[in-house]
């Protein structure tokens, strides 16, 4: 291992909804750094204002991360400390972080994780499906590779966790039913927020529940593994 040089890159997990779900350490770090690199500076400002944190921000999101990473590395090498945050949850989990982490490691920069909320873990632990072994797939491919992905997951025995947007949730669940059969699933939306809702049961019943109102908010989808049988009763909460 090479000696660390320059400043420190902090990967700071932030609330996935409820602003109170942030650690004392995260607040302390955000107050102490020279710069905050945020996926969406407008959303991050809401959090910073809530905790009276006044620090310079710069954008760091999926479309500019490759170009922005070298600029941030230059600041880190000059001795500045930077906190990287996503819109919500943990940086690097279906959110930008990979490129700057790679480059920071290549340049001998110290990286410190500040743990906290992650939507898929919150959904998994309340799902009622097995939590001892699971696979997180994030967002499925939109077109190319989508069929291949479903085929590869069809025989997966571990609990499967996906993210999905509101305008694709019904389509995705229908495809899961077509490939996997009427397997048990759990669909959680707006976790930790005012309109938090969790629906459990066989896919067909969950789809019926989703047809009753317009889907809103980001979804965590937890799917029963191929060899698992939990016989969940549908319920909302």
Overview features:
about 240 residues; alpha/beta; Cobalt-precorrin-4 Transmethylase, domain 1; Methyltransferase, Cobalt-precorrin-4 Transmethylase, Domain 2; five-stranded parallel sheet; five-stranded mixed sheet; 8 helices; 10 strands; about 30% helix; about 20% strand
What do these coordinates show?
With 237 residues, the protein is α/β, with parallel strands linked by helices. The chain folds into 2 domains: 107 residues, 3-Layer(aba) Sandwich (Cobalt-precorrin-4 Transmethylase, domain 1), CATH 3.40.1010.10; 105 residues, Tetrapyrrole methylase, C-terminal domain (Methyltransferase, Cobalt-precorrin-4 Transmethylase, Domain 2, 2-Layer Sandwich), CATH 3.30.950. The chain contains 8 helices and 10 strands. The strands form 2 sheets. A 5-stranded parallel sheet has the order 3-2-4-1-5, with helices on both faces. A 5-stranded mixed sheet has the order 6-7-10-8-9. A hairpin with a 7-residue loop joins strand 8 and strand 9. Helix 3 runs parallel beside helix 4 and helix 7 packs antiparallel against helix 8. The longest helix is centred in the N-terminal third of the chain and has 13 residues. The protein is elongated. The protein starts with 7 loop residues before the first strand and ends in a 14-residue tail after the last strand.
What is the third-level CATH name, the topology of the largest domain? Answer: Cobalt-precorrin-4 Transmethylase, domain 1
Strand content: 15-25%
* Number of domain units: 2
Termini gap: 48 Å
What is the strand arrangement across the widest sheet?
A: 3-2-4-1-5
Summed up, the helix count is: 8
Average residue-wise pLDDT: 93
Into which percent range does the helicity of residues fall?
Answer: 25-40%
Structural class: alpha/beta
Main sheet?
A: 5 strands, parallel
Number of strands: 10
Spatial extent as radius of gyration: 20 Å
